[in-house]
Amino acid sequence: KEIAFIFDLDGVIVDTAKYHFLAWRNLANSLGFEFTEEHNELLKGVSRVRSLEILLEIGKVELTAAQKQTFLVQKNTEYLGYVHKMTSEEILPGINDLLDYLDANNIKYALGSASKNAPLILEKVGLFNRFAAIVDGNDVSKAKPDPEVFLIGAEKLNMQPKNCIVVEDAIAGIEAANAANMLSIGIGDAKLLSEANYVLADTNGFTRDFLENIMK
Ligand code: BG6
Ligand code: MG
Question: Keywords in UniProt for this one (predicted)?
Answer without folding.
Answer: Carbohydrate metabolism, Isomerase, Magnesium, Metal-binding, Phosphoprotein
